[in-house]
């Protein structure tokens, strides 16, 4: 017999579309809760990509790619202005 998991303990991928608003409202949006979510995400990423027996460049390259994309999005307005300028 399948055990029923409370809605608060379900992962996002296990939540049905009708349950989504109530699931979001049950999350902890205090500064402590947000910091805990970032910490869990960091440890999950670290243990999956960096802290492995046969590691490669995948973990660090993803961080660098995210950094480059973030800076490109941040500077897009200035880059767009430079692109339209004529050099003659």
TrEMBL record:
TM region positions: 55-73
Per the UniProt entry, what is one GO biological process?
A: proton motive force-driven mitochondrial ATP synthesis
Q: Which GO terms describe its molecular function?
A: proton-transporting ATP synthase activity, rotational mechanism
Note the superkingdom of the native organism. Answer: Eukaryota
Topology with regard to the membrane? Single-pass membrane protein
Keywords of this entry: Acetylation, ATP synthesis, CF(0), Hydrogen ion transport, Ion transport, Membrane, Mitochondrion, Mitochondrion inner membrane, Phosphoprotein, Transmembrane, Transmembrane helix, Transport
Q: Which GO terms describe its cellular component?
A: mitochondrial inner membrane; proton-transporting ATP synthase complex
The subcellular location is: Mitochondrion inner membrane
Task: Report the function annotation for this chain.
Answer: Subunit f, of the mitochondrial membrane ATP synthase complex (F(1)F(0) ATP synthase or Complex V) that produces ATP from ADP in the presence of a proton gradient across the membrane which is generated by electron transport complexes of the respiratory chain. ATP synthase complex consist of a soluble F(1) head domain - the catalytic core - and a membrane F(1) domain - the membrane proton channel. These two domains are linked by a central stalk rotating inside the F(1) region and a stationary peripheral stalk.
Classification via PANTHER family: ATP SYNTHASE F CHAIN, MITOCHONDRIAL-RELATED, ATP SYNTHASE SUBUNIT F, MITOCHONDRIAL
Complex and partners: Component of the ATP synthase complex composed at least of ATP5F1A/subunit alpha, ATP5F1B/subunit beta, ATP5MC1/subunit c (homooctomer), MT-ATP6/subunit a, MT-ATP8/subunit 8, ATP5ME/subunit e, ATP5MF/subunit f, ATP5MG/subunit g, ATP5MK/subunit k, ATP5MJ/subunit j, ATP5F1C/subunit gamma, ATP5F1D/subunit delta, ATP5F1E/subunit epsilon, ATP5PF/subunit F6, ATP5PB/subunit b, ATP5PD/subunit d, ATP5PO/subunit OSCP.
Q: Which family does it belong to?
A: Belongs to the ATPase F chain family.
User: What name does UniProt use for this protein?
Assistant: ATP synthase F(0) complex subunit f, mitochondrial
Q: Which organism is it from?
A: Callorhinus ursinus (Northern fur seal)
Q: What is the lineage of its organism?
A: Eukaryota, Metazoa, Chordata, Craniata, Vertebrata
């Amino acid at each position: 017999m399948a055990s029923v998991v409370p809605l608060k303990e379900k992962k996002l991928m296990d939540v049905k579309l009708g349950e989504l608003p109530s699931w979001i409202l049950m999350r902890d949006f205090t500064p402590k809760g947000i910091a805990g979510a970032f910490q869990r995400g960091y440890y999950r990423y670290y243990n999956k990509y960096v802290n492995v027996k046969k590691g490669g460049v995948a973990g660090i390259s993803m961080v660098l790619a995210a950094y480059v994309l973030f800076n490109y999005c941040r500077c897009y307005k200035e880059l767009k202005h430079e692109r339209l300028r004529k050099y003659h």
